[in-house]
Amino acid sequence: MTTVDHAPARVPLAILQEVFGYPAFRGQQAAVVDHVTSGGDALVLMPTGGGKSLCYQVPAIARQRAGRGVTLVISPLIALMHDQVGALDEAGVPAAFLNSTLDWEQTKEVERKLLAGQLTLLYAAPERISTPRFLGLLDTLHAHGKLSLFAIDEAHCVSQWGHDFRPEYRALTVLHERWPSVPRIALTATADDTTRADIVERLQLQESQQFVSSFDRPNIRYTIVEKKDPTTQLLRFIQNEHTDESGIVYCQSRRRVEELAQTLCEAGLDAMPYHAGLPAAERQANQDRFLRDEGVIMVATIAFGMGIDKPDVRFVAHIDMPKNIEGYYQETGRAGRDGGPAQAWMAYGLQDVVNQRRMIDESPAEDAFKQIMVRKLDALLGLAEAIDCRRARLLAYFGEQMVPAKDPSGAHTQPYCGNCDNCLQPPDVWDATDCARKLLSTIYRVQQMSGIGFGAGHIMDIVRGKSTDKMKQFGHEELSTFGLGAEFSEPQLRGVLRQLIAVGALHVDAQAFNTLRLLDGARPILRGEQPVRLRAASAKPERARKVRGERAERGSRSRATPPAAAELDAAGQARFTALKAWRGEVAREHNLPAYVIFHDATLAAIAARDPQSSADLQGVTGIGATKLERYGEEVLRVSRQAG
Ligand code: ADP
Ligand code: ZN
């Protein structure tokens, strides 16, 4: 247990305003910051973009000012530490990192500053915690009462149930065991109940206070489409709805990443590949470009993205289905951190289900583990097949009940969020019970007749009554179900099979040529006791729906969206453009992403004010004292010159 000493609650707010230039804390930030500033332990669950960094940065500053020394931030993201420290430096907060990118001289310099009490925050990778040299340094600081706080970022990495297990995180128990009096704050954007319990246990946070925020991301529009020709579907989605905007496209395999990046480039888009198989230098260069330039599309495996805090990613697309809802939500959560309108788009088909099931079956893991993986996959399949609100389902998965949005038509009987595909355009639903029974009994009969199972293609051929060579070879034209479902199209049958797999009526046997087998869940359907209602496999193209410039209307929980540049008058536009160009130069000089200097929202606010003196810049969101002093004059000059 850590002792709680009460610092005046005004201090954190004053720091937020003075250092970061933000007028108020958001959501749970104030409670977390107060608790941690006064020396309490905390576990913070907040969605991506919720503002986790400030939850430890503000206490770090407050505690350093109170003479308590340095905050150690554990982050698994070596590639991003430079930018994180750069952002603090821009805000005038003394910070540094220790990782393998530093040479000996640089390392010694950081250590010197650390021991001289010149740092407020020190970022380090978890593996450093196991080195005697680093432990010795922390001992020295602690002996002098200068070890203020431990912040454990991306805390889900400690759990194998999270989607990003890092064994090095397990060693972090040393923090608590060796320096029990130093408070700890662990933060993550993702954790279902299992993962959360695991984090608490692994990091020995039983005594900590838990702060769980709403996981809703009201500004993200969720859309899941049926996979037909995924490359064309993706191209249409980007070209219709996201021209010149930043986005991430997730694929399952490295090869697919490379092919797709090339296809997008050939279609005139600015796309780059990212996966763990690329040379480290190329990976880093691509990531830097994505962070630093505007309108770049990253085509990537899940190796990309953790800790990417680029605020203006406008879309995240999945061309293959991820493994579970945690992964999906984490990945899609990288869109729209700035609170502006953003989209999460996924294409999903029967093959995805088969592939994911196969990966689980073929993995060398223990059965108990596989069962959990299957359960998690099933939940994602349920989301993909859903004919009701996606957001309600996502939130329910994380144990949260959605507060419905106001339904303008009043026609919705189910939960309504107003910003997912199913709410915006309720899908056509058909009763697939008869079709499902025909498929299931065909699978049963071929197994009876031939003593072996068959794959989806052949089963569909039987139901549709197609005379193929295989049909003749096995005598399947004799089956009573042959041709019994000739009225169903192949996409319809495929959709029903997918759903049957998703609900646990069918098993795809990866060890035997993806043959289909009945499971217990098939019985009530075969007996006609359980209806099967399905999204109609639509032949019509997805309707292009512009999200740009629209506001997410999700009531009071919607974050204030930044003033869109589109709302500026002509002179304001000119100022905004000039400010962006100026920001680009500064960012290049400092080797930092542009948003670290100022967010778009800050520049748009400046352009809207048409400032004439430095007093006019006071109170613009995102301009703290240091930035005002450093850039105030320049910003005024650039803005005035532009109009
Ligand atoms: P997370 O790590 O939870 O994904 P970040 O800490 O990166 O989120 O914050 C997301 C964005 O929101 C950042 O650009 C940050 O500057 C901004 N932000 C966080 N808290 C506030 C606040 N109280 N007021 C204004 N902007 C904030
Ligand atoms: Zn909805």
Helix content: 40-55%
Any idea what the CATH superfamily of the largest domain is called? P-loop containing nucleotide triphosphate hydrolases
In CATH's first tier, which class of the largest domain applies? Alpha Beta
- Span of the ends, CA to CA: 59 Å
Please give the largest β-sheet.
7 strands, parallel
Principal-axes shape call? globular
Can you describe this structure?
- By secondary structure, the protein is α/β, with parallel strands linked by helices.
- It folds into 4 domains: 10-212, Rossmann fold, CATH 3.40.50.300; 220-348 and 386-427, 3-Layer(aba) Sandwich (Rossmann fold); 430-535, Winged helix-like DNA-binding domain superfamily/Winged helix DNA-binding domain (Arc Repressor Mutant, subunit A), CATH 1.10.10.10; 564-642, Orthogonal Bundle (DNA polymerase, domain 1), CATH 1.10.150.80.
- It has 26 helices and 17 strands.
- Strands 3-4-2-5-6-1-7 form a 7-stranded parallel beta sheet, with helices on both faces. A 6-stranded parallel beta sheet has the order 8-13-12-9-11-10, with helices on both faces. The chain has a two-stranded antiparallel ribbon with strand order 14-17.
- Helix 12 (325-332) links the parallel strand 12 (315-318) and strand 13 (342-348).
- The longest helix is centred in the C-terminal third of the chain and has 21 residues, at 570-590.
- It is globular and about 85 Å long.
- Residues 22, 25-26, 29, 46, 48-54, 309, 311, 337 line the site of adenosine-5'-diphosphate.
- Adenosine-5'-diphosphate is lined by residues 22, 25-26, 29, 46, 48-54, 309, 311, 337.
